[in-house]
Amino acid sequence: MTYKVLISDPLSEDGIKPLTQAENIEIVMQTDLTPEELEEKIVDFDALLVRSGTQVTRSVISKAKNLKIIGRAGVGVDNIDLDAATEHGVIVVNAPNGNTNSAAEHTMAMIMAISRNIPQAYHALKNHKWDRKKYVGVELRDKTLGVVGLGRIGAEVATRAKGQRMNVVAYDPFLTPEKAEKMGIGYGTFEEVISQADFITVHTPLLKETRHMVNAKAFQLMKNGVYIVNCARGGIIDEDALYDAIVSGKVAGAALDVFEEEPFVDHKLLELPEVVATPHLGASTIEAQEIVAVDVSHDVLRYLTGDTVKNPVNLPSVAKDVMTVIEPYFQLSEKLGAFLIDLVGEVAEEINLSYSGDLYDIEVAPLTRNTVKGILKRHLGSSVNDVNALYLAERKGITVNENKTSKTQGFTNLITVEVKTKTQTRTVSGTLLNGLGSRIVKVDNYSVDVTPKGHMVVIQHNDQPGVIGRMGSLLADHGINIATMQVDRSDIGGDAIMMVTIDRHLDDEALDALKGLDVIKEVVAIDL
Ligand SMILES: NC(=O)c1ccc[n+]([C@@H]2O[C@H](COP(=O)([O-])OP(=O)(O)OC[C@H]3O[C@@H](n4cnc5c(N)ncnc54)[C@H](O)[C@@H]3O)[C@@H](O)[C@H]2O)c1
Ligand SMILES: O=C(O)CC[C@@H](O)C(=O)O
């Protein structure tokens, strides 16, 4: 099978080598598509690789019939409609680490540029004006830098600013006093930080909570003559409020790499001499572009070839050591879900998962998603995958609960899935036998030992002589060979279960014939 990958923003050619050198990957690089052209083009592509230039809208995603993965060569995914991607089962991956250094260096360059008026003085000189008086700057030494958002880039900026002998004070909801102390910086609330700072630099993502967090009210709290830097995302700073604050003299200068609307050719902020700007160049270095393209290409390749991705955005990422432990359970968990939903034969209203033994202490969310996928597939087919399984369950009003229990029932690991429907509650438990693969070990209260694979018949009957024989003869009459059989009962003469694996699908005729046997209460054909 050949996978088609569309690259719609300029990406480092060396960086995409993992894809260009891979087998079965056809790459189309077209970086001048209009939004309408992208919608037309994307239809049969399996993967889309972008930087910040391409707007991957809901409309683009819904036109993409084969799309499996969107790779963002960079950090910010605000140009991708993540909800739409999740709903359509499209995984989004990014390259969160590759441009951290470049973005931090660019931020420092911008701080230096505004503190010493370098671009303005350069521009004047280019225009034959030798003006030393006009471009007197301020030192960074002993000034306070307020860092809003102390993630990867914010932290790198803080470290570099200390190198410039600045005092650093930061606000980030995840910043602990211990971390601040370890970094040798101060911390405070957003209001405390911006009111102490001589320079303020923002490094948050653009979110509902961060949109316009630096607004007219925030400017009022700042020192007179403060400098503002934004190398994160346009929209974190309210541009109208910034304009007013510069014109009023509250803000002495601003350095902006990012804007609310990009790209643009005219912007009122650029008419102000106090504003220094670059056209979203924070990540634009040869080094960063190569690393982000390599990282995202590897992840796209991994996903298309059935491997686990390293930097998923719309799926929680799983630590490598956790993944090593849970990976062998993936097949079991999906099969348990598929088995159980076939057994109940109607839609689930509630799914309860319980993990024990070796699975007790580790993160099992990926297994839960996988089991739910196995359950939903019965009614939703291949449109459900690990990305959208929980979303689709929620949208269908299905409650999913996950718990851990210390009751291993004698197994070193055990996954129990319970499905509640309008009319019944049924359970199945499975284990991974060391070296022997997956086993279903319990169906409702019956103990069994069946490999969850191939064609099966699950029969509920009364424990009485002759049932097994009649069932065997009937299958033989329909030319169906029995591969394995397991029987268990509640007590002598009580309710019993038979789990029969057969060599081909149980057709309707044989199924009806089995249902016709008076000793049989329920027959379900299951194909895993
Ligand atoms: N200019 C560029 O070319 C360029 C390059 C790379 C990254 N970026 C942008 O820089 C920003 C930071 O990137 P990063 O890799 O450091 O991300 P990150 O996820 O490592 O850090 C973001 C930090 O912001 C914090 N945060 C979230 N909400 C906040 C709030 N309301 N107040 C304060 N802090 C908050 C988070 O806790 C996190 O620590 C992103 O917007 C990213 O898109 C821009
Ligand atoms: O693609 C770019 O150059 C911008 C990247 C940057 O904004 C990011 O969020 O990673």
TrEMBL record:
Metabolic or biological pathway: Amino-acid biosynthesis; L-serine biosynthesis; L-serine from 3-phospho-D-glycerate: step 1/3
Gene3D superfamilies: 3.30.70.260, D-3-phosphoglycerate dehydrogenase, domain 3, NAD(P)-binding Rossmann-like Domain
EC number: 1.1.1.95
Keywords, ordered alphabetically: Amino-acid biosynthesis, NAD, Oxidoreductase, Serine biosynthesis
One example of a Gene Ontology biological process annotation: L-serine biosynthetic process
Catalyzed reactions: (R)-2-hydroxyglutarate + NAD(+) = 2-oxoglutarate + NADH + H(+); (2R)-3-phosphoglycerate + NAD(+) = 3-phosphooxypyruvate + NADH + H(+)
ACT domain residues: 456-528
One MF annotation (Gene Ontology) recorded for this entry: NAD binding
Role this protein plays: Catalyzes the reversible oxidation of 3-phospho-D-glycerate to 3-phosphonooxypyruvate, the first step of the phosphorylated L-serine biosynthesis pathway. Also catalyzes the reversible oxidation of 2-hydroxyglutarate to 2-oxoglutarate.
Similarity section: Belongs to the D-isomer specific 2-hydroxyacid dehydrogenase family.
NCBIfam families: PGDH
Name of the protein described by the UniProt record: D-3-phosphoglycerate dehydrogenase
Organism of this sequence: Oceanobacillus piezotolerans
